[in-house]
Amino acid sequence: MGIPKIEFLGAAGTVTGSRFLLSCDDTKVLVDAGMFQGLKELRLKNWNPFPIDPQQIDAVILTHAHLDHCGYIPKLVKDGFEGKIYLTEFTGKLAEVVLLDSARIQTEDAKYAAKKGFSKHNPPKALYEEPHAAKSVQQFSVQPFRTRIQVAEQTYVTFFPSGHILGASFVEVEFFGKRLLFTGDMGRQEHPLLVMPDKIPSGHFDAVITESTYGDREHAPTTTVFETAINETIDRGGSVLIPAFAVDRTEVILVQLRQLMETGKIRRVPIYADSPMALKALSFYRKAINEDSEEIRDEIVRDWAGKDPFDPGTLVELLTVEESKSINEPPQPCIIISASGMATGGRVVHHLRNMLPNPKHTVVLVGYQAIGTRGRRLIEGETEVKMHGEMVPVRAQIEQIESFSVHADSKELIAWLKTASEEPGQVLVVHGEAGAAETFSDRIKSELGWKSHAPIDGEAVTL
Q1: Contact in structure between 54 and 76 (CB atoms under 8 Å)
Q2: N or C terminus of the chain with fewer C-beta within 10 Å?
């Protein structure tokens, strides 16, 4: 028998493009198949040939439905992958929405680039199109939590709730006699809707592959900056734009806004949810609450079944492009929540074009902003940003609120790793920008005394 190994084909030295290939003899299993986002040099990696023929992949295991973990699946399918994609119920529901939306945006962007003439491709093209995304969904194989299933030769998988977004899992993979744990993106103890992550299953793991998005820092405690920024903006006649990930972040923000309005801490103004994908995701969160899903906190089910925790009475759901355009120049102060969360694409870019040049408005960034994204450039104080081939001046107020993060920080990750009953053979630290992964790896060595390493892109590690 050959020696099992893991290859890091993404999310090594960066927080994006999660792709981990397990191989032994002729068996090949891919854990996550994410799209690269952020810096142009990273985005271009999406176009590189996959290191092996996708037809050789026996199965894909998907931890959750964010694009940097699932967005490359339709490209694999387009190029010949015909195996099953193993995931949980709500990861399947959300990934279908995310992948179809990704295909649609790419196709629209290619058409827009062709019309405006700003693409290196001639003619501009999409990485994949809607038929490829639709075919991917046909290959989904939905699995329950905490149930061991065989996915390939000598390969068994068990999903456990990770509390990151609805459906999100950390995954135990038994691969040719080796026992591995992939954290995916690890949630926090106090998500407003979701149960806390399960503890690590007992027994010895040969390797733990952990994320490190916030591996070099701890989240700032919740402050009143969010409500202060909203009230000050509304008082000066401006509107607040919140770029938010369509899946989960929009839900978390809406819950918070409802609480703030009901307690009188912020003015009661219209809230526009402007992302078809976010509105579909919202419907799945409502479904999970009403059906008493095991992923939803008991008190949320008790208090909100049959009601709407996301609407303070001022929520307006914008479905069509025309409805979205109607708030480009809002007639009164309002709050707009729109995707994408790092301001890289989607409807939020059009709102930014209209609002950034006006000092009465405020843009509130509520999630991780990867290097190279518009959101990161706004945080770093750039005075103009590029959109649709044009430079747009930044005069609006820019705020960053990290307390909304649904990623465990370094302290929370260490606390979770401590739930292991035994020291693992090794820890492999991924999904962190260069520096964050190394810092977190060093912390694992110093605080836990475990063997730890942050792989580089393309590295192969023997298990």
Answers
A1: yes
A2: N
- What is the pLDDT, as a whole number, of residue 94? 97
379 pLDDT above the threshold of 80: yes
Cβ-based neighbour number of residue 3 at 10 Å: 11
Average pLDDT over residues 371-384: 91
At 243 the pLDDT is 93
Residue 115 CB burial class (10 angstroms; 0-12, 13-18, ≥19): exposed
- The per-residue pLDDT of the chain, averaged, comes to 93
Name the pLDDT band for 120 (thresholds 50, 70, 90).
low
- pLDDT for the residue 122: 65
Q: Taking Cα atoms as reference points, which of 59, 52, 27, 71 lies closest to residue 344? A: 71
User: Which two three-digit tokens encode residue 367?
Assistant: 């999630």
